Amino acid sequence: MNNKLAMLVAASLVVASGGAYADGDKKGHIKDDQVSKTYHTEKTADDQAMMNEKDTELTRRVREQIVADEKLSMNAKNIKIIAQNGKVTLKGPVDSAGERNKVEAIAKKVSGAKSIINQTEVEKE
């Protein structure tokens, strides 16, 4: 009885979705217009790499300055630094509110204060 119910539910889902091959032909092939849309809207790895060179450099410079600060704890020096489109996000544990503020100040100075999102968390104090 349970198998019949499962098959009935599966069949109704296929019917509700417009068929098993709603995005292609009966053999499951993708239509040419779908390939064209996907191909022209998706960025290639090379495009992404070229766009990300500036973000990679920004991340490197922020990391370099944070690691160079001898007053920061190992936790602060190991925070995650994510640069995307010139915006810097800081994540991870730091030892104090002072360190939290310090890593943010370093990121602002290095990035030109375009946008800093400080998601670091004080682990102990």
TrEMBL record:
UniProt xrefs under InterPro entries: BON_dom, Lipoprotein_DolP
Signal peptide, first to last residue: 1-22
Keywords, in A-Z order: Signal
Region feature (Disordered): 20-56
Composition-biased stretches (Basic and acidic residues): 23-56
Alphabetical list of PROSITE patterns matching this protein: BON (PS50914)
Residues in BON domain copies: 54-124
Protein name, as recorded: BON domain-containing protein
Organism placement in taxonomy: Bacteria, Pseudomonadati, Bdellovibrionota, Bdellovibrionia, Bdellovibrionales
